[in-house]
Specification:
With 405 residues, the protein is of the alpha/beta class. 40% of the residues lie in helices and 15% in strands.
Length: 405
């Protein structure tokens, strides 16, 4: 069986301490490119935020001054997953080397703002909600931060309904496509406007107009897009991917093709919203499992997903207190469940080895080891340059002195 999770721990030696929190130095050939990807799912974003809270705690046990954005070269998200990654990557106004929000604060953000975003007393003209709560919440959280100001590289997809094509707001694209350097609040509002739930969002940036809807129309799971962005930068990168889902209910075999003639329009609506989403997810998992099982030994892929979510918690706009608390508890319980792997031959889900918490602990070891190696390399390079700089400074001083004689 081809395993979804390939844990290869290359971290060895003593932990290198004494480095202050700073942006992760860039990955070069021979180093690991680290990617975090978070699915869309409305208020179910609480589930991956709880998973990140565990990872954040594991990393802070090794370095109290580091944030998640210090450990990932790329963070990608769709819909509310994009809001999560934007909050993780937005620098603090008090200290730009630190993130403005921790995963624990992001959980509270959703619990406080979920009822505001999905406010049944504010119906839209067609969509279920008017979108004002989403607009205000995103702007208040992300302020005036733009893509190029994020603490790490961002990859966020959305779909333009006027131009009928996807847009990928990627840090990697800014040099060639500068109009993608938009406000994170505008991008997150755009990728979160799920059809039928929230109205499309219009904004302009650098002379270009955007008429956007939910990034889930382009990619519910943005992992493929994030990996693609990395592959465009390096032909043979070594990659670590942590992909987080927002939970799916257990599959029930309720439809029978032999009864297709009796299906009503409502039945096809269910197929459109549920089956096609599952089909896309399955193909995404198939592709990612395939490429990671065939790459170099250091490539690591972990998908953290609840495949047996309580049906009462499956509604992405259910913002009752019971639902919010239930989603938070579901995220905590998921950590203690066995890792689920994907069978490339049968497309079946199979129980793997160890729990998700144990898997995240291993991921934390790899991430921390990679960060320390890069910081040590940067420090060594800085020491190596210093004599040259000092020599040049002394030569410049002597030249100026001679000019004055």
């Amino acid at each position: 069986m081809a395993h979804l999770v390939l844990f290869v721990l290359l971290f060895a030696g003593q932990v290198i301490g004494g480095f202050s929190a700073q942006k992760l130095p860039p990955s070069n050939n021979g180093e690991l490119t680290t990617i975090l990807s978070i699915d869309g799912g409305g208020i179910k974003a609480i589930v991956p935020a709880k998973v990140l809270q565990y990872l954040d705690k594991a990393l802070k046990a090794k370095d109290p001054n580091a944030d998640l954005a210090h450990y990932f070269d790329v963070i990608g998200g769709t819909s509310t997953g994009a809001i999560t990654v934007a909050m993780l990557a937005t620098p603090s106004l008090d200290d730009p080397t630190r993130a403005a929000y921790t995963p624990a604060q992001i959980v509270e953000f959703y619990k406080q703002n979920g009822p505001r975003i999905f406010n049944a007393s504010r119906p839209g003209n067609g969509p279920q909600f008017d979108g004002e709560g989403l607009h205000d919440s995103a702007r208040e959280a992300l302020k005036e931060t733009r893509v190029d100001q994020a603490m790490t590289n961002l990859v966020i997809p959305a779909f333009d309904i006027k131009k009928q094509k996807p847009f990928v707001f990627s840090s990697y694209k800014l040099e060639k496509v500068p109009y993608l350097n938009a406000l994170l609040s505008d991008i997150c509002i755009s990728t979160s406007t799920a059809p039928r739930l929230l109205p499309p969002y219009f904004f302009g940036n650098d002379g270009v107009e955007f008429n956007l809807v939910d990034g889930g129309e382009a990619a519910v799971n943005p992992t493929l897009i994030a990996v693609s962005e990395v592959l465009q930068q390096n032909e043979y990168p070594e990659i670590l991917v942590l992909s987080l889902g927002t939970g799916a209910t257990k599959i029930e075999e309720t439809f029978d093709a032999r009864l297709a003639g009796t299906w009503q329009t409502q039945t096809w609506d269910v197929i459109d919203t549920n089956f096609l989403s599952r089909a896309y997810t399955a193909i995404t998992e198939y592709y990612l499992s395939s490429i990671f099982s065939g790459f170099q030994a250091r490539n690591t892929y972990l998908r953290v997903q609840e495949y047996d979510l309580n049906p009462d918690l499956s509604d992405p706009v259910n913002v009752t207190k019971a639902s919010l608390d239930g989603l938070e508890e579901s995220g905590k319980q998921l950590l203690q469940k066995k890792v689920v792997t994907f069978n490339l031959d049968t497309f079946d889900l199979e129980e793997g080895v160890g729990t998700y918490a144990e898997a995240l602990d291993r991921i934390a070891d790899i991430l921390h080891g990679e960060r320390q190696r890069r910081l040590l390399r940067s420090k060594s390079m800085e020491k190596g340059r210093r004599p040259i700089l000092e020599t040049l400074a002394q030569a410049n001083w002597a030249f100026q002195k001679n000019m004055h004689i």
